[in-house]
């Protein structure tokens, strides 16, 4: 089993910064591919950033240049540094971990952390 625990969300003014953390535990490797998604009210969940086993990263267009994903494999933790926050970044942010078992890709999700950016 895999458990993901997000933290770091909160209320911040536009232009401010937050850092989200996602600690993974359970039956995982330290370098499993991980990602951050977000979902705003009335909208579909969207990719924010992802980091692969080889440390390559990919970002959603709306956050490029403002957000940075990173990981600490020794702590089984992935981070999302969010700078220059905008009101439209307000959403619940979810952490996702991928693992392959017998050639089958499995996904695990955290419960989410709320980020609210005031104009």
Mean pLDDT: 95
What does the overall shape look like? globular
Discrete helix count? 0
Largest sheet: 7 strands, mixed
Q: State the distance separating the first and last CA atoms.
A: 40 Å
- Roughly how many Å is the radius of gyration? 14 Å
Percent of residues in beta strands? Answer: over 45%
Label the structural class: mainly beta
Helix-strand pattern:
EEEEEEEEEEE
Can you tell me the residue ranges where pLDDT is under 50 for at least 5 consecutive residues?
A: none
Roughly how much helix do the residues carry, as a percent range? under 10%
Q: What is the β-strand count? A: 11
Keywords summarizing the entry:
single chain, seven-stranded mixed beta sheet
Gist of the model:
This protein is an all-beta fold and 119 residues long. Helix content is 0%, strand content 58%. β4 (34-39) and β5 (46-51) form a beta hairpin.
List the helices and strands and how they pair.
Blueprint: E1 2-7, E2 10-13, E3 18-26, E4 34-39, E5 46-51, E6 57-59, E7 67-72, E8 77-82, E9 91-101, E10 104-109, E11 113-118
Parallel strand pairs: 2-11
Antiparallel strand pairs: 1-3, 3-8, 4-5, 4-9, 5-6, 7-8, 9-10, 9-11
Task: Tell me about this structure.
The protein is built from no helices and 11 strands. By secondary structure, the chain is an all-beta fold. The strands form 2 sheets. Strands 2, 4, 5, 6, 9, 10 and 11 form a 7-stranded mixed sheet that branches. A 4-stranded antiparallel sheet has the order 1-3-8-7, with no helix packed on it. β4 and β5 form a beta hairpin. The mean pLDDT is 95.
């Amino acid at each position: 089993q895999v458990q993901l625990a997000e933290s770091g969300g909160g209320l911040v003014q536009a232009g401010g910064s937050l850092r989200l953390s996602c600690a993974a535990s359970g039956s995982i490797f330290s370098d499993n591919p991980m990602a951050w998604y977000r979902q705003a009210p009335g909208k579909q969940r969207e990719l924010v950033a992802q980091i692969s086993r080889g440390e390559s990263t990919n970002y959603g267009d709306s956050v490029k240049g403002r957000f940075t994903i990173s990981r600490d494999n020794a702590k089984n933790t992935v981070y999302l540094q969010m700078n220059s926050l905008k009101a439209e970044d307000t959403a619940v942010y979810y952490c996702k971990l991928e693992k392959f078992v017998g050639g089958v890709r499995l996904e695990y999700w955290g419960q989410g952390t709320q980020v609210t950016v005031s104009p």
